[in-house]
Amino acid sequence: xxxxxxxxxxxxxxxxxxxxxxxxxxxxxxxxxxxxxxxxxxxxxxxxxxxxxxxxxxxxxxxxxxxxxxxxxxxxxxxxxxxxxxxxxxxxxxxxxxxxxxxxxxxxxxxxxxxxxxxxxxxxxxxxxxxxxxxxxxxxxxxxxxxxxxxxxxxxxxxxxxxxxxxxxxxxxxxxxxxxxxxxxxxxxxxxxxxxxxxxxxxxxxxxxxxxxxxxxxxxxxxxxxxxxxxxxxxxxxxxxxxxxxxxxxxxxxxxxxxxxxxxxxxxxxxxxxx
Amino acid sequence: xxxxxxxxxxxxxxxxxxxxxxxxxxxxxxxxxxxxxxxxxxxxxxxxxxxxxxxxxxxxxxxxxxxxxxxxxxxxxxxxxxxxxxxxxxxxxxxxxxxxxxxxxxxxxxxxxxxxxxxxxxxxxxxxxxxxxxxxxxxxxxxxxxxxxxxxxxxxxxxxxxxxxxxxxxxxxxxxxxxxxxxxxxxxxxxxxxxxxxxxxxxxxxxxxxxxxxxxxxxxxxxxxxxxxxxxxxxxxxxxxxxxxxxxxxxxxxxxxxxxxxxxxxxxxxxxxxx
Amino acid sequence: xxxxxxxxxxxxxxxxxxxxxxxxxxxxxxxxxxxxxxxxxxxxxxxxxxxxxxxxxxxxxxxxxxxxxxxxxxxxxxxxxxxxxxxxxxxxxxxxxxxxxxxxxxxxxxxxxxxxxxxxxxxxxxxxxxxxxxxxxxxxxxxxxxxxxxxxxxxxxxxxxxxxxxxxxxxxxxxxxxxxxxxxxxxxxxxxxxxxxxxxxxxxxxxxxxxxxxxxxxxxxxxxxxxxxxxxxxxxxxxxxxxxxxxxxxxxxxxxxxxxxxxxxxxxxx
Amino acid sequence: xxxxxxxxxxxxxxxxxxxxxxxxxxxxxxxxxxxxxxxxxxxxxxxxxxxxxxxxxxxxxxxxxxxxxxxxxxxxxxxxxxxxxxxxxxxxxxxxxxxxxxxxxxxxxxxxxxxxxxxxxxxxxxxxxxxxxxxxxxxxxxxxxxxxxxxxxxxxxxxxxxxxxxxxxxxxxxxxxxxxxxxxxxxxxxxxxxxxxxxxxxxxxxxxxxxxxxxxxxxxxxxxxxxxxxxxxxxxxxxxxxxxxxxxxxxxxxxxxxxxxxxxxxxxxx
Lengths: 275, 275, 270, 270
Ligand SMILES: Cc1cc2nc3c(=O)[nH]c(=O)nc-3n(C[C@H](O)[C@H](O)[C@H](O)COP(=O)(O)OP(=O)(O)OC[C@H]3O[C@@H](n4cnc5c(N)ncnc54)[C@H](O)[C@@H]3O)c2cc1C
Ligand SMILES: Cc1cc2nc3c(=O)[nH]c(=O)nc-3n(C[C@H](O)[C@H](O)[C@H](O)COP(=O)(O)OP(=O)(O)OC[C@H]3O[C@@H](n4cnc5c(N)ncnc54)[C@H](O)[C@@H]3O)c2cc1C
Ligand SMILES: Cc1cc2nc3c(=O)[nH]c(=O)nc-3n(C[C@H](O)[C@H](O)[C@H](O)COP(=O)(O)O)c2cc1C
Ligand SMILES: Cc1cc2nc3c(=O)[nH]c(=O)nc-3n(C[C@H](O)[C@H](O)[C@H](O)COP(=O)(O)O)c2cc1C
Ligand code: FES
Ligand code: FES
Hints:
By secondary structure, chain A is of the alpha/beta class. Chain A is built from six helices and 16 strands. Residues 15-18, 46-47, 68, 70, 72, 74, 100, 136, 163-164, 187-188, 191, 213-216, 235-238 of chain C line the site of one flavin mononucleotide (FMN).
């Protein structure tokens, strides 16, 4: 089954790169939650859209990396234009961003790409997230409210700290069972689907998880939107670097995604993405 | 006239690059005085020798520069192995070093090159410095004591603040006359030579100043040692990049200098050195 | 200023294949079409081939010290798709358009720079169009100036260089080539000294205007390429880091030019 | 390990012309001669020519993004001066010695990589010595693998690459070429992806060992060149930043190798 959005869920970005001021940077278990005040950006980015970020100072250290900016879904936008990003420090770019101090400048451009579309009338939204991929689901929940059921999986209890970003009591799975249920988030999804007559899935997480979600939804003919990841240099369609294979050929994830309709994918296992 | 040193005035450097800890970094008018504790280095570098310095962190910023380390004469060494460097921030390397904070790591190798030789018996040492070139004369004065007469020139009173590093009352010239005499340090030298029966000159400063000193000393047959500058990548003879022309052909300033006998030079105007 | 008879408001172009004005409009909206917002003084399309191409399999990007390696593989809609779908949209841009084409058979121009004999390829293009023809050189030719001179003799109205340098990266996990295309092209500041040398050498050899590019990231860099003999510059990879890099570079360049006029005046006065 | 029949304790050499062991001994003293302090597993001399050469006029160096441009111009004492003054000192080093020579006329080998015909030059060297012959390739050849294959056919015992890429820098004040030699050679991390590609391509083509270099600055970089097919690596520019870079890189490389053995063991156990 397909999502059939009425119009492209995309808020336009101001042209060019601007500087936001970092207002906070705090620990969230294994992650960092970085907040920055994007004074001149739009207040209404669509959940699932992303920003390209770079530190204004010290972007490019030993060995001349990071060089290009990095892509991040926003987790939340506040009324004054403050954006929250949930980061996992996995390489030179995320490490630099993870150590930003309040007051420092954050170069950003965005919101970029196409976000999540509304669920079909009468379908119950299931938000399925894995690890750092829970970030864009926070604002999806903000928008959908109690109607949405949140199912999230993490490697460990340190990672599961990100669950605190969600309202209510999300269902949690961890690899080691230290928080919530032991196992994979797809098992939670299977259970939720069993309980739900008409579901619509919103998913983001590591590629193997998304692939499992895609297969499960295809099997049960449940519509699903998947927020994918791929290596990006520009974020606005300039470099043709971020393509992922779809049934219709390669699409640039930064302008035709990152949220794709699962029905368009043969597989969510994107070459070269993730860590 | 020539200096005829009995042996090469060179203290050997420990092999490789080591980390010294920055202990202080203070303003000195237009300059910075950076102190670092070189725990495992020799306590007896020869005045005129230099060190290659790089910040342990953040060496290489926007645009991938600074890349190679930078050369600095030491101004002073203390008994515990603390080295003082006088810096002028003129480019990316010196700017980074100028903002080092106490506790940060400073990569260094040295002491490098050949320092100043003793003055011939019975000759009065005249220490002639211009601008940042006064730095290596500080430790020459430390060694020679009152016997040496210090003549130093600066662009402005902000630069003349470096005079505070010298003991006693050095003679000062500034371009604008705001401190000491208005004019060039070579005029002070001319006066001192007139007053001194047998002089021996130790000079360091910008190339045009050194050339004026060289010409003056040649004219009066006064022996002179000049500490030159040239662009360096390695500091220990590996790259052959730092050559300066002498009467005997090109010599590598980092292993055969930086202190050269004026008698060996046709001119002290080295191509590509200085700002 | 004038490039092959076309009036440009300034000397800053985009590198072919490094800016998709249509995708940028989807992202940034019609603000992009304002003359004062559009980042370049002329727009160069992504390279078009006769037949549509999917491009290379992903992954297509790798970051290197002050550089980027790409194996994009010239994905494009083909000539027909371009004329039908893209050209009408590109015609709305507020600056002149330069369409980048790769021969009428792919191999033909891919080998252009490899040998002087290829001049024939340019002659054929020359005969087929009344528009100015700009030939882009590959930087891997052993003697770029000879290739440029051959292109000039065959009637090129301008030459453009450098393209990316051939490079490679390994996947740290598998230790095999990371890029789907095995090798890729290196661009960005890392290659700037190489680009500057080739631009200077080619500009000294040919009479036609040279469009210089390779790692330009600031007005000062642009200035250097013009000092080396380029008539115009193009900005590629830096647009990935900053979507309006072209505008910033033009602005910085303007400041430098004014300062220099100021300095030389001051020097004259002294 | 074995390189052309010579036993080496490890795979890390110096790049020719980037380490002067005699000058280093003047600077660091006899500590340099201790086997555990000497930074390389074999020592490659600066390139020697038949006649002495002064080298290029200064300035000879310019820094670029993650790179260095040099126009040194092969200064050396000439064959006779080398044999008399340097060789006895180099014989005291605790590792095997590789002497780098540039033909017996300068032009002869300068053009080595330009064409396959040059193979003759290697044949002549081959006949003149019983020692292994290593041929260093220029990276500006349009097809380095063809040149390497030609060198192999002519009897080279190993090939070594890359040399520096041609580059240029302008003096910001005069806006004319900064380097005394007008152009120079670009080295350092900036060129690493280009070097890695050429090493991989050449290693896939020839049977003789390949000595890989170009921007190696860490054990991980060294590992990549070996993964790409090099038998040994050489460290050039990084030694300028750290006089014992060779030792550090060998140490880091050792740690990586041990970790990888550990990982594969763990994977087997699982
Ligand atoms: C649409 C989108 C949204 C995202 N949202 C989030 C989010 O909300 N939070 C979050 O934490 N992450 C998010 N990510 C992932 C994030 O962008 C990556 O984790 C980040 O780019 C990693 O950068 P790095 O420099 O830390 O790591 P690296 O992996 O070192 O660098 C990133 C890229 O560089 C390449 N690379 C990897 N290793 C090397 C190497 N040794 N040399 C050269 N290149 C290398 C790879 O292509 C890699 O993808 C998102 C990604 C996308 C596409
Ligand atoms: C033996 C010796 C002793 C010295 N002692 C002192 C001292 O005590 N105190 C002190 O302040 N200074 C000293 N200097 C000078 C000091 O080394 C230089 O000021 C310093 O190297 C400048 O580095 P930078 O990065 O700040 O400036 P830059 O000039 O930018 O960099 C240094 C070198 O890079 C090259 N260069 C310049 N501009 C560029 C560019 N745009 N792109 C690429 N390359 C460029 C030039 O070759 C220049 O020499 C000494 C120098 C020598 C040789
Ligand atoms: C991602 C990417 C795609 C490119 N695609 C093309 C192309 O389609 N046609 C072309 O002539 N050059 C192409 N180039 C080369 C650029 O136009 C330019 O010559 C090169 O990148 C050097 O400039 P830079 O360092 O400013 O990027 C591409 C470069 C990049 C980085
Ligand atoms: C300053 C300098 C001098 C060099 N001199 C020589 C030389 O005499 N002979 C030679 O074969 N290569 C010479 N090279 C090239 C290096 O051996 C090496 O091939 C190149 O620098 C790439 O390696 P790197 O990036 O690690 O420096 C020189 C390189 C530099 C930077
Ligand atoms: S990241 Fe450049 S096209 Fe998508
Ligand atoms: S700085 Fe390298 S030889 Fe002198």
